[in-house]
Design goal:
CATH topology of chain B: Immunoglobulin-like
Oligomer: heterodimer
Shape of chain A: globular
CATH class of chain B: Mainly Beta
Shape of chain B: elongated
CATH superfamily of the largest domain in chain A: Cytochrome c-like domain
CATH architecture of chain B: Sandwich
Strand content of chain A: under 5%
Helix content of chain A: 40-55%
Number of strands of chain B: 9
Helix content of chain B: 10-25%
Distance between the termini of chain A: 51 Å
Strand order of the largest sheet of chain B: 1-2-3-7-6
Order of helices and strands of chain A: HHHHHHHHHHHHHHH
């Protein structure tokens, strides 16, 4: 009788041990990685020395107004908020953004963007304010010109502008439409302006970007179920209620930071390494050739609104990212920035041109690791079972709840 | 009789636990302990002895920071006219450094400031210096594990 009881005890204890090994336990290294990915590890928003209005509330308020103002476009119906939808994580759920025309790239969400050194999928801008300027003049997006925006702010936001940025220049001799990326007549008008006039317009234009950037700095990542789980894990407390991860979610998290190598690039609390990687994402038939970072480095180097340019408020000592960026090499070809995965599960489609409609397609791509259309993929094939794929997806969903 | 079967069940389950734990052990390529992380090395052809140290302690993954490279001859004389280029990357991941670090200042005593270094992810990194001076050209590679 006694031996029978102890036999039961052994059997039950062994089963409990097996259950605990099915995922509840994390190694110290895993715990450290999980903690590094949680929002608790996010450093305070870094200062932006290139934008002396970055933390000016009046600039942020003007920026918010401009962000949603549809008059900031050639057809009067496109604002920043047209593609960066406030109730959709500041993105638009489309494969390629649609403004006045259709772009070649997926609209990026904005939460946490202010922490990153590079903007757009290819890092073709190096500050939040320089980024904000580019769509305003892109013929497929807002399709306006910098002269148009200078006149617009002088006409509509004169007092608010001058209270923040000081006196507006005399724009009486500036054409209504003139800019280096406008229609041919608008480019001609821009080229006919004196360098002083161009500078005066550029200064107003750059200040609009700085106001919009000041607003965008307030768009921060929100706490997710993963963060609550990570907090309980770090505190050594059992996760309870909705904070507790299912066995599938735990297995997915272990894959994410282990065998599937996701956390190699999707690292830190924003789940991006802020760098550029070729992961062999397919081309979209019909779109022009897209070389990713290879083109992006040339564009940011040439941008008059970059960190080293005269409209930046920072000295060269604050421009390390630009000064020491990798400018050439095969690794730049079709390399793109890993987006944050926070909220990703609820914002298909995926990749820089919306190539994949579902997370299943994304995970399948990273599992197969096909050869890159150009350049070389950094991926190595994984052999993920159907069950492991579902586990990864289950974990990704915890970053969007 | 029944208790014997329960013992068998317990043994089977325990074996499953042990095998499961063994299979779950991470099998990373070279482990941290196998990588030579020494911060002072003789260059490949023996022309120089190079040493590196971060300019300030507490460097963080993902942040730009600076290193001090000290170049001396094998008999300990500082090399003050070296032309140095910096390279490296992650051997496991088929990519180079995320930035393009450069020598920005000669600090004297064979010491050179290397600016613009960034390690964007955890893992094994190589930092390579190609060093040229009147003594000749040579190269040295350091390993770092973030």
């Amino acid at each position: 009788m006694e031996s029978r009881r102890s036999a039961w005890f052994c059997a039950v204890a062994s089963l409990l041990l097996l259950a605990s090994c099915s995922g509840e336990s994390f190694s110290d290294a895993e715990k450290a990685t999980i903690a590094s990915m949680s929002l608790a590890s996010l450093l305070p928003l870094p200062a932006d020395p290139t934008n002396k209005y970055a933390d000016d509330p009046a600039a942020a308020a003007l920026g918010a107004t401009l962000f949603f103002d549809q008059r900031m476009s050639s057809d009067g119906v496109v604002s920043c908020g047209t593609c960066h939808l406030i109730d959709r994580q500041f993105q638009d759920d489309l494969p390629r953004g649609k403004g006045v025309g259709t772009t070649n790239r997926r609209t990026m969400p904005l939460a946490g963007a202010a922490w990153g050194p590079w903007f757009f999928w290819d890092g073709r801008r190096d500050s939040l304010w320089a980024q904000a300027l580019a769509p305003l003049e892109d013929q497929r997006e807002h399709a306006g010109t910098r002269a148009f925006y200078a006149h617009f702010v002088a006409d509509e936001f004169n007092e608010r502008y001058q209270r923040i940025f000081g006196p507006l220049p005399d724009l009486s001799s500036v054409p209504k439409q003139a800019g280096p990326f406008g229609k041919p007549a608008e480019q001609t008008a821009w080229n006919a302006m004196s360098p002083d006039r161009q500078d005066a317009v550029n200064r107003v234009f750059s200040n609009l970007g700085k106001a919009i950037a000041a607003f965008e700095r307030s768009i921060v990542p929100e706490e997710t179920r993963f963060d609550r789980f990570a907090r309980a894990l770090a505190a050594g407390k059992p996760a309870e209620g909705d904070v507790a991860f299912s066995g599938e979610e735990i297995a997915g998290l272990k894959l994410f930071i282990g065998k599937a190598n996701c956390s190699t690039c999707h690292t830190g609390p924003r789940l991006t390494d802020d760098s550029f990687h070729n992961t062999g994402v397919p081309v979209v038939p019909g779109l022009p050739e897209d070389l990713g970072r290879e083109t992006g480095v040339k564009q940011v180097d040439a941008d008059p609104f970059n960190c080293l340019g005269k409209f930046s408020d920072a000295g060269p000592e604050a421009c390390g990212e630009l000064r020491f960026m990798v400018k050439e090499g095969a690794a730049l070809t079709r390399a793109y920035k890993p987006p944050s995965l926070r909220g990703a599960a609820t914002r298909p489609p995926y990749m820089h041109a919306g190539q994949f409609a579902t997370l299943e397609e994304v995970v399948d791509h990273y599992s197969r690791a096909p050869a890159a259309p150009s350049g070389a993929t950094e991926l190595h094939p994984l052999t993920l079972s159907e069950r492991e794929r579902q586990q990864l997806i289950a974990f990704l969903k915890t970053l969007a709840e | 009789m029944k208790s014997t079967w329960l013992y068998v069940l317990a043994v089977v389950v325990l074996l499953a636990v042990v095998i499961g734990a063994y299979l779950a052990m991470p099998s990373a390529a070279p482990t941290k302990s196998e990588i030579d992380e020494s911060r002072s090395r003789t260059t490949a052809n023996g022309l120089y002895v190079a040493a590196i140290e971060p300019e300030s302690p507490g460097m963080k993954q993902g942040e730009l920071h600076s290193w001090i490279l000290t170049v001396k001859t094998p008999d300990g004389k500082p090399v003050d006219d070296a032309k140095i280029t910096v390279g490296g990357g992650m051997p496991d991941h088929n990519h180079g450094l995320p930035t393009s670090p450069e020598v920005t200042q000669y600090l004297g005593e064979g010491r050179y400031r290397i600016d613009g270094v960034k390690f964007s992810m955890s893992g094994w990194w190589e930092l390579r210096f190609d060093i040229s001076s009147a003594a000749g050209s040579d190269t040295v590679t350091f390993n770092l594990v973030m």
